[in-house]
Write a structure and sequence with these properties.
alpha+beta; Deoxyribonuclease I, Chain A; 2 domains; 7-stranded mixed sheet; 30% strand; elongated
Amino acid sequence: MILPLSNALNSAGPMDEQNLPTILNNLSMLVHDRLTPRTILPKDNINELTVNKTFFSLYHQNVRSFNKHHDELNEFLDCLNVDFSVIALTETWISDQTFQNLAIFQRNNYKLELNCRGSRGGGVGAYIDLNLNYKILNINIPDSESLWFQFKLNNVDIVLGIIYRPSTITNSHEFLVGLDRVLYDMNTKNLNCVLCGDFNLDMLKLDITDQYVQSLLNYGFGATIVYPTRTVGSSCTLLDHINTNISDTLVTAGIIYNDISDHDATFALFHNIYLDIHQINTKFFPRYNFKLYNKSKFLQELNECSLNDIFSHDDPNDAFSVFISKFKACCDNNLIMHNKLKKNLCCVVVFSYNNKV
């Protein structure tokens, strides 16, 4: 595997005072090339992101208590209507007591894998698509919690590391040394690797002299997330990273705003890394047929619905639930249900870009 940092240094010739400007220029171009996107969509542009089910895709959420937010997370993922290959979770906060009742955390068509701290705080996990063939790797990095998988996909093997580094550990030296050792091993074995999680290292403040950035560049990793993932008051930080050394595929990555925790979700789609499409289940979902119905009768029944019990609720969520139930009753009475093939549908994102990593 090519080491881009070594190339940037060697291409300038001997490392002496005469070649220093060329070396610095090469390094600057390298950092710009590896750590910034090719195309950035405007912040105020709401985009529909098409997700091809045959491609490997990754979603990460710092959930800050899986026990508290798992229903909210699953509802949010269902609203996106996107079947991610892996849904990575950090700060699961699953205790030994909660671990005994994991059935409540199950998600249809996924298997749940967890690495729990056993006490409040920390912990990582992942929902893995049942169609994926994988094994769990025994990899540990000091001062962090992680889960490591090796996926055997249709045309390539990928190692995925889901990492949480606690913010309470202010000295990151041991973690960075351990991470560098793991990346060195991945590079030696020529493995395709993706790192994701909450590293509690603000990429907006790091530069090429930082040990974390040097490790990424040394082993051919590029950052796919370049915008803040956590905003508290006037403070914006990029703590949630998705980095990869896969250099021969197009990657679409970005951020999805939500209020599950004080961290926004991140995602990455690997366009030329195929799942085994023969294992994918064709999915259908019921849908109203608006082409075959009596429009006047439907509108008449809708107009006859009383709104008093809707406006009688002080809680807008309760009022909305009543409205939905009334509208659904009108649809059930006047519309025919039919099964529709679930397409490769879209989710709404705020930032996304295509990056040839």
